[in-house]
Amino acid sequence: MGLCNFLAAALMPKLAGRMQPKWWQEGAVMKRVFAVFLGLVLTAAPAAFAQRPDRYVDPPIVRSFNWFAFVGGDDIRANCGKDGRNRLRLVYNAIYSEQVRTYEIFLQPDGTAGMTVGVLADQGNVSQLLLNNGGDVLKPWSMKRGERILNAGETRELVALLQESAGFGPPRDGLRLPDVDFWWTIASCRDGVWGFQAYHYPTDGFANVKFSRALFSWDPVPVPVNPPRKEVPAQLRRDWNAPVNHMNANQWTLTVGRDGLRPR
Fold it and tell me: Which of 23, 107, 148, 234 has the highest CB neighbour number within 10 Å of its CB?
């Protein structure tokens, strides 16, 4: 039941919000869409999971199941102090339907760090999907990826900026992170110690985010950063005349607890 609810909350808004109800009644088009979705994901997933020791959130259906746990760093927390890894996961939510950037950083014993970047942007209009080419179905929601090695100086700079930003916690208990706002989260494990932090742009204008400029300068993915901007509060941006799953409405909100995200 929990998995079904998760799928309904994270994946179906993109499908139901953009497709006419009569398509569901006819059934033929939807069957073709889901056949392509599931065929591609099931074909790609074994290799993807074999290559990555942690949660894999690239294919849209898999990302729908794992996204909240990924942002919360559940896998990092569960293994912190057990696998000997010093790692960070930073997530920049620049209005979820517009852009999301993820930074996986593994701190190395020699003082360097490996950084993997994922960017989700221009997610497209589901009603415009081309069914004659399976790749076209997943492309709008596939993360663009890049990798870089941070040298020892860059790694020291990043860690210092994170410390200046209180990036290793504790977070503000009760802080709310709507999908339609700009915010950062940081999940970390250093020397066996778990840490979590979150920053919400409308709350303080990212006054305590000291690391973003350096991190963006090292980002190898050729997709321009979506900068934070002032918006009407998320709860006031609902279109009450729109369908419940309309893409521009507030779809979900994460709530920060004392040392991580609160359970949904």
Answer: 107
